[in-house]
Write a structure and sequence with these properties.
The complex is a heterodimer. By secondary structure, chain A is mostly helical. Chain A has a domain of 89 residues. Chain A has a two-stranded antiparallel sheet with strand order 1-2. By secondary structure, chain B is of the alpha+beta class. In chain B, 38% of the residues are buried. Helices cover 36% and strands 15% of the residues of chain B. Chain B folds into 2 domains: 190 residues, Alpha-Beta Plaits (2-Layer Sandwich); 58 residues. Chain B contains 7 helices and 10 strands. Chain B starts with a strand and ends with a helix. Classes of the chains: A mainly alpha, B alpha+beta. Chains A and B meet through helix 3, helix 6 and helix 8 of A and helix 3, helix 6 and helix 7 of B. Bound molecules: protoporphyrin IX containing FE. The site of protoporphyrin IX containing FE has 21 residues of chain A, from helix 1, helix 7, helix 8 and helix 9.
């Protein structure tokens, strides 16, 4: 077995996942009319559980906790985990990454056999610690999270605040950016959850998010470049 | 269900502004701002040289303020009132920007949007303060669907006039009688751009998100039926077959 995730990273991932899903679901339930992307039933469901004011308060409370814990984590683990993670997920190899994404897409949608019939070799280019799809989702998640956190804090603090007022135009653009970030993640999150938890062959990676370890053969097969660099360094 | 309408015979108005003060007091509107107003227009045909036009929230049909609200904190109620629920209002100001009559403002104490609610909030079931106080009885308020009400009678017997800000397409329900000055209002904004752009985007999220969920469900079902190991084996076998076919071809050519 090889260590893949530290305890702190695992804790942050699951803390983040729970907060994110709650915030996304409750946040969408705050929207009304034509701005409601799921449907009126979604709003009724959540308002039924939390009440009108309660839903807003719950969304703000969880959002505040999420931001506070993240700020702490980033301060404490900046050098050890945050920066290396950001470096890892922002290292792109354009040609191979695009090839990976296209082939993985074909694999998932039409299947490898038909891909071969189309005259395309379905073998995926070798990947490092994270594959191209994971890196792409990670970058989107980081950007969306920062956008949500900043606009969320501005709105949470200034909305309805009569002592420290900010221009209403600023608040309106904050709502807009907050919504865009959430909307983008709402599209990518199901992909991430599917690829991480439901797709066959990903069992060891999913277990690694709880135990911290992956079997050697799994890393060798899924992350050959990472595996090779581990071998070289040890 | 009642259909509340405010009717104003503005020709009777003498600009005493009792309606404004009564409203401020009944609804605890802080000093210096008000939910209603009296427009003054110079006029030679008036003995005092001016015409007066009292007004407030027009309780429009299909209101632009309601369309601009991202949280559903304001809505057109079944009884014709455009209502605000302060507990749902996040004070973003979109509705204030989207009202072509400038009938809304940000309440300096609550931080939320505020406007005329026919005094429903402060004194439910009572005659609005502005109507009760008017010394010349130029305001009539009531259920326009109840034929015995004064509002229904006056609407049936006299000409209804609506004032609309130029180009706004507003559908006010506040009605003036026979004639009023000014006959229209200067152009006013009916959208708040950031929030207005969210509407098509929300459609996009619905459709793209739905498509992604459907595609993932399909993929999941497909992979339930066929394990990836089996697929790997099939690919290996097919690759082998292809390369051996390649060889045969080469041998044939030779
Ligand atoms: C039930 C929900 C979720 C499950 C089952 C899940 C599962 C996983 C797993 C197993 C990994 C590790 C992949 C590996 O080691 O190769 C991972 C990584 C990651 N997860 Fe999640 N996750 C969930 C929700 C979320 C949410 C809500 C977010 C953020 C908004 C998120 C962001 C990430 C990021 C940034 C990574 C690292 C790189 C990547 O795989 O993109 N996850 N997740």
């Amino acid at each position: 077995m090889i260590r893949r995730h530290s305890r702190s990273a695992m804790f942050m991932h699951w803390f983040n996942a729970i907060c994110w899903i709650f915030l996304l679901f409750s946040g969408f339930a705050l929207l009304a009319g034509e701005m409601q992307p799921v449907g009126q039933w979604w709003r009724n469901l959540w308002v039924g559980i939390f009440g009108d004011r309660g839903l807003l308060v719950a969304h703000l409370a969880v959002g505040t906790i999420w931001v506070a814990v993240y700020v702490l984590y980033i301060l404490l683990f900046c050098r050890r985990e945050v920066l290396p993670f950001l470096r890892e997920v922002t290292t792109f190899h354009m040609k191979s990454d695009i090839e990976w994404c296209m082939k993985k897409g074909l694999w998932l949608v039409v299947g490898p056999k038909r891909t071969m019939k189309m005259g395309i070799d379905p073998t995926l280019p070798p990947q490092g610690f994270y594959n191209a799809g994971q890196r792409m989702v990670a970058v989107i998640a980081v950007i969306a999270s920062v956008g949500l956190a900043v606009t969320g804090v501005v709105m949470g603090f200034f909305s309805g605040n009569v002592d420290y007022a900010v221009s209403e135009t600023v608040l309106q653009w904050c709502i807009f950016i907050h919504f865009c970030c959430a909307g983008i993640m709402a599209i990518f999150l199901p992909v991430h959850i599917y690829m991480a938890a439901l797709a066959p062959g990903e069992g060891p990676a999913l277990r690694s998010m709880f135990t911290g370890f992956v079997p050697e053969h799994h890393a060798e097969h899924h992350n050959p470049l990472w595996y090779a660099s581990l071998k070289k360094n040890s | 269900m009642a259909r509340y309408v405010m009717v104003i015979d503005s020709e009777k108005c003498m600009n005493c502004k009792a309606c404004i003060i009564a409203c401020q007091q009944r609804n605890h509107v802080p000093y210096g701002i008000s939910r209603n107003w009296v427009h003054e227009t110079d006029s030679d045909s008036s003995p005092c040289g001016s015409k007066f036009q009292p007004g407030a929230c027009m309780h429009c049909d299909d209101p632009s303020c309601v369309r601009a609200c991202p949280t559903g904190a304001t809505w057109k109620a079944a009884d014709g009132t455009v209502e605000i629920d302060r507990s749902r209002c996040i004070g973003c100001g979109s509705c204030i920007e989207a009202c072509p009559y400038h009938a809304r403002f940000r309440h300096p104490v609550t931080g939320t949007a505020d406007k005329c609610d026919y005094c429903h909030g402060s004194t439910p079931g009572q005659t609005p303060a502005c109507v009760a106080v008017c010394p010349v009885h130029c305001r009539i308020f009531g259920d326009a669907d109840d034929p015995s009400s004064e509002v229904a009678k006056v609407l049936a017997s006299r000409k209804a006039v609506h004032i609309i800000p130029v180009g706004s397409g507003a559908k006010p329900t506040l009605t003036y009688l026979d004639t009023t000055t000014p006959a229209e209002l200067p152009a006013g904004n009916t959208v708040s751009h950031p929030v207005d752009t969210m509407r098509p985007l929300a459609k996009g999220v619905t459709w793209v998100g739905g498509l992604v969920l459907a595609a993932l469900t399909g993929t999941f079902v497909r992979q339930l039926v066929k394990s990836s190991e089996k697929e790997d084996e099939e690919i290996a076998a097919e690759k082998k077959a292809a390369s051996s076919a390649d060889k045969h071809e080469k041998e044939d050519n030779a």
